[in-house]
């Protein structure tokens, strides 16, 4: 049986806006996540033409603001991660804790003090911190007053933010990612880029301009990080969903190829290879513009070329199936990336089609394309868990999901793919990004909190907690 490499980074992943709470404590400014409506309709609401960035308490519902109160309970949470045997812990730094409005020149010391303490707590247990610099949480002020990432001014602001955290933590933190799921803006630019609909639809040209600005900002972070320490590992982070053609019809095969280019690969191609891919104008022409319509300079393109990322971080939850011809194919409702139902796969309660073999394919596709180390920084099953009177959660369905995906990862390693680590998403229950609710849970640790914000906030170990502890202790041999 293929073994996982020595030093394999087993751990778990979270994001500041989904668990910290304390949204106005320690001098933190508001972030876009603080102003997103709660509830399953959040993406519909933000795509209405009249959506704008206000903190409207009527529109806003629990629970983004309080998260799971990790801001006050991080020591308890990290101790539980340590008990599971985590080798690493992926979390993000809330930009608005460090620069409350985003365009200041001096950082907020209280915000830095929080991350000083969080990182120290990880290191106390020999847990390697893995930091996402920006995870769906830019300062709200930058979205309101600058229009989000389509404005080139944000490059400077992000550079300042990245400079502060890289300089402060580079001796303690080796692994970094510049933007969470950068390609997700294709479907929901509001979270990653702070863009709101223009004339009822997000204009694609804005999204590509925003991406270009993010690519430049990311390359600047890579450059700064390597100047501080050439051994720092700074990655990109892609939302990857393996895409299949619905059938052997060449029309669908071509659509699948283009879907892969447009969605799965475009951002990675720029960030890993350091240049815009050959299909860039094919893709942009489809949306009615071309690369030359964007605002870019030769210096920026040179910066991209000189500062590719060191590894590819990616999230993997599901695959998608591409169909352009079969009118009777049923749509895969619920998931945010679309496609049609794949008759060979089961889906989660949210319509995310569960596909461990698709992970093996993803790892092979990404490695064949880039030949750089891969880091699975999100994977997992969102489910409604039941807790009994003894505070037990028997989440065998989650164990099954994770086991099958870890087996697929092992097979990919046997295929020759270089995989650095695995950090399942939401290792402790937290607020869901797509629904803004607590009831969609991923954790090994149950948090007593409901969608209305009621609960003791007590933490309880689920059955998967003991299971994952054994997986890590055996370096993946016991599944
Ligand atoms: C990814 C995000 C995470 C996370 C996860 C699960 O897209 O990077 O922030 O939340 O998906 O999604 P959800 O919470 O919507 O189930």
TrEMBL record:
<keyword id="KW-0326">Glycosidase</keyword>
<dbReference type="GO" id="GO:0008422">
    <property type="term" value="F:beta-glucosidase activity"/>
</dbReference>
<feature type="active site" description="Nucleophile">
    <location>
        <position position="378"/>
    </location>
</feature>
<dbReference type="InterPro" id="IPR033132">
    <property type="entry name" value="GH_1_N_CS"/>
</dbReference>
<comment type="similarity">
    <text>Belongs to the glycosyl hydrolase 1 family.</text>
</comment>
<dbReference type="InterPro" id="IPR017853">
    <property type="entry name" value="GH"/>
</dbReference>
<protein>
    <submittedName>
        <fullName>6-phospho-beta-glucosidase</fullName>
    </submittedName>
</protein>
<dbReference type="GO" id="GO:0005829">
    <property type="term" value="C:cytosol"/>
</dbReference>
<dbReference type="InterPro" id="IPR018120">
    <property type="entry name" value="Glyco_hydro_1_AS"/>
</dbReference>
<dbReference type="GO" id="GO:0016052">
    <property type="term" value="P:carbohydrate catabolic process"/>
</dbReference>
<dbReference type="InterPro" id="IPR001360">
    <property type="entry name" value="Glyco_hydro_1"/>
</dbReference>
<keyword id="KW-0378">Hydrolase</keyword>
<dbReference type="Pfam" id="PF00232">
    <property type="entry name" value="Glyco_hydro_1"/>
</dbReference>
């Amino acid at each position: 049986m293929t073994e996982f490499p020595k030093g394999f980074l087993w751990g778990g992943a979270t994001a500041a806006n989904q668990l910290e709470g304390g949204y106005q404590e320690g001098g933190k400014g508001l972030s876009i996540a603080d102003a997103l409506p709660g509830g399953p309709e959040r993406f519909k609401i933000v795509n209405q033409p009249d959506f704008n960035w206000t903190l409207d308490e009527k529109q806003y519902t629990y629970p983004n603001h309080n998260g799971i109160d990790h801001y006050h309970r991080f020591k308890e949470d990290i101790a539980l991660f340590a008990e599971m045997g985590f080798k690493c812990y992926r979390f993000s730094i809330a930009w608005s804790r460090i620069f409350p409005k985003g365009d200041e020149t001096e950082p907020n010391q209280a915000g830095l003090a929080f991350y000083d303490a969080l990182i120290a707590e990880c290191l106390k247990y020999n847990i390697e911190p893995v930091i996402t610099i920006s995870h769906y949480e830019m300062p709200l002020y930058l979205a309101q007053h600058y229009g989000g990432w389509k404005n080139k001014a944000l490059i400077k602001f992000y550079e300042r933010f990245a400079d502060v955290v890289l300089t402060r933590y580079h001796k303690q933190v080796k692994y970094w990612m510049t933007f969470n799921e950068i390609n997700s803006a294709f479907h929901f630019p509001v979270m990653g880029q702070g863009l709101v609909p223009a004339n009822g639809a997000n204009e694609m040209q804005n999204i590509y301009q925003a991406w270009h600005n993010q690519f430049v900002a990311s390359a600047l972070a890579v450059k700064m990080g390597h100047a501080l320490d050439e051994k720092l590992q700074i990655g990109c982070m892609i939302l990857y969903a393996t895409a299949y053609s619905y059938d052997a019809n060449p029309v669908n095969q071509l659509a699948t190829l283009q879907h892969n280019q447009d969605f799965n690969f475009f951002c990675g191609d720029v960030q890993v290879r350091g240049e815009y891919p050959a299909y860039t104008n094919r893709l942009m022409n489809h949306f009615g513009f071309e690369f030359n319509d964007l605002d870019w300079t030769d210096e920026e393109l040179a910066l991209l070329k000189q500062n590719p990322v060191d590894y590819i971080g990616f999230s993997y939850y599901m695959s998608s199936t591409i169909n352009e011809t079969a009118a009777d194919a049923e749509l895969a409702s619920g998931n945010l990336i679309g496609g049609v139902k794949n008759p060979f796969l089961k889906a989660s309660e949210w319509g995310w089609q569960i596909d461990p073999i698709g992970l093996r394919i993803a790892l092979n596709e990404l490695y064949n394309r880039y030949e750089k180390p891969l880091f699975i920084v999100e994977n997992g099953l969102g489910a409604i868990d039941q807790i009994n009177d003894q505070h037990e959660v028997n989440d065998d369905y989650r164990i099954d999901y994770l086991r099958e995906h870890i087996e697929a990862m092992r097979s990919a390693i046997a295929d020759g793919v270089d995989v650095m680590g695995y950090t399942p998403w939401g290792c402790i229950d937290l607020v869901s990004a797509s629904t803004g609710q607590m009831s969609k849970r991923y954790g090994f640790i149950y948090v007593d909190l409901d969608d209305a914000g009621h609960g003791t906030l007590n933490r309880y170990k689920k059955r998967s907690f003991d299971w994952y502890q054994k997986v890590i202790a055996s370096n993946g041999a016991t599944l």
